[in-house]
Amino acid sequence: MRGERPVRAEQRIRVVIVGGGTAGWMTAAALATLAPGAATVHLVESQEIGIVGVGEATLPHLRAFVARLGIDEAAFMAATHATFKLGIEFRDFGAIGDSYIHPFGSYGRPLDGVGFHHYWLRRHHAGATAPIGDYSTAVVAAAAQRFTRPGSDPHDLASAFGYAYQFDATRFAPFLRAHAEARGALRTEGLVTGVDRDADSGDVVAITLADGQRIEGDLFIDCSGFRALLIGGAMDEAWEDWSHWLPCDRAVAAPCASPAGGIEPYTRATAMAAGWRWRIPLTHRIGNGYVYSSAHLSEGAATDALVDALESPPLAEPRHLRFRAGRRRRSWVGNVLSIGLASGFLEPLESTSIYLVQMAITQLVEHFPAARVTDADRDGFNALVDAEYDRLRDFLILHYHATTRDDSPFWDHVRTMTIPDSLAEKMALWRQTAQVSRYSHGLFLEPSWVAVYLGQNVVPDGWDPRADLPDGAALDRALAALRGGIAAAVATMPDHAAYLQAAA
Ligand SMILES: Cc1cc2nc3c(=O)[nH]c(=O)nc-3n(C[C@H](O)[C@H](O)[C@H](O)COP(=O)(O)OP(=O)(O)OC[C@H]3O[C@@H](n4cnc5c(N)ncnc54)[C@H](O)[C@@H]3O)c2cc1C
């Protein structure tokens, strides 16, 4: 599998996956479903070690994964106690008391090729008070706790949004396991204790387990989580550390009972003294956690702050997790490819980890060697993974850096720290021209950046001059009609909790 060495033409490629968390079973399910003629799949996991098992909020892309694997959405949602998600509400980030929703979907509609937010900025600077969220169907529906699946006409305002899921992460991997095993994936329970490498090529040829079993393969996928047994251990691939920009390195998590009333179709992130707290409503409980910087807060104080903030007593002992922001210098080295926490970690502020797993799997399936793996395949894969990680890193840093908070050492640090040049350039472009750096693929396109910039009070003084062309009164009427149309469309949507019940 290395360089130009042909793979064994007479057989399917033997894929060995180390790790049975979300990353491992997503990979196994995808390969068993999408490449059954090309690969055999053998997954090794150790229940003694267990899985991270947090990761309850997702992005709309997961729907495509579920659909492509032929998974029935209703069955998947029932098995994982899932709710629908229209975006993330950020509280207290730009300043204490502030709140905005980063929606899955656009604001308004572009007019004559000019983005809607330019028109909004023009009217905002003229004194108009309606927040930009009033022009997003996802924001208005989320705030009203209403939900329906979008229709197929993208020009219809009522359909101008996407949705994702909030689910019980401990149930996702077992659900996918059943799917993968039904399609021929093999599973072995055991602790990996050794890795055999070819002396000449450096490729991994086999892993050995504590009970002496030896499992050979052609392609090894490291889904061993933070342990990174193959990519970090055997291949010793360097780690690029980003903790100077993203200092949160701990989390404490605890579920609590759902309050009476509705179920919010959105995740909430509330800024705290030394990080932020998530709140994720599922059908049977609320998931909560405090992501914090251990340089600024002790474990005990973080736990107390989380428990104090819960709506009801915790349903389980608080769980403590440790991590570091960053990524492997290369995710695919030789015949070892890392997916999930083994390849990198970005805190869950924008629910990006499972997306990154999915993106890597999609690339793997697309690059899946028909006959041989070339350096170009590996380089192409690594370049895409790097680009995604680097852009997400900048997007997350923006949430911290774009603040006026000076109420704790943590917020003083992130407000005043030196940010990556790539983010400084993006912010300068926005401030000067109200333009968002464009890229054609990947995560978080223009509306997402607009949501966070405006939500955190980074408001440019100018806008695209073409937005000055329409007559002011006519523009006001058009904006009012848009708001009214969205409000009317949302008013016809069912209550989210009732919709879930009807769909169950
Ligand atoms: C606090 C926190 C909150 C998060 N929230 C979100 C979120 O809201 N949304 C989101 O998308 N993501 C979130 N994530 C990330 C998400 O949890 C992970 O991306 C996802 O669970 C994938 O984990 P994994 O499969 O890579 O690793 P793990 O779940 O750690 O699985 C590792 C596997 O490797 C196995 N293993 C390890 N060593 C050995 C060995 N020696 N022998 C055999 N097996 C071994 C383990 O048994 C396990 O099966 C969050 C992460 C954290 C830490």
Describe the model:
The protein has 3 domains: 13-56 and 168-244 and 324-391, FAD/NAD(P)-binding domain, CATH 3.50.50; 83-166 and 420-498, no CATH class; 250-322. The chain starts with 12 loop residues before the first strand and ends with a helix. It has helices spanning 22-34, 61-68, 73-79, 116-125, 137-143, 169-182, 229-234, 299-309, 353-367, 375-401, 409-416, 421-433, 446-455, 472-491, 496-503; strands at residues 13-18, 39-45, 83-85, 87-91, 99-103, 164-166, 186-189, 192-197, 204-209, 214-216, 219-222, 239-241, 250-253, 267-272, 275-281, 286-292, 319-322, 326-328, 332-333, 336-338, 344-345. Residues 1-7 have low confidence and may be disordered. It is α+β, with helices and mostly antiparallel strands. The strands form 5 sheets. The protein has a 7-stranded mixed beta sheet with strand order 5-4-14-15-16-13-17. A hairpin with a 4-residue loop joins β15 and β16.
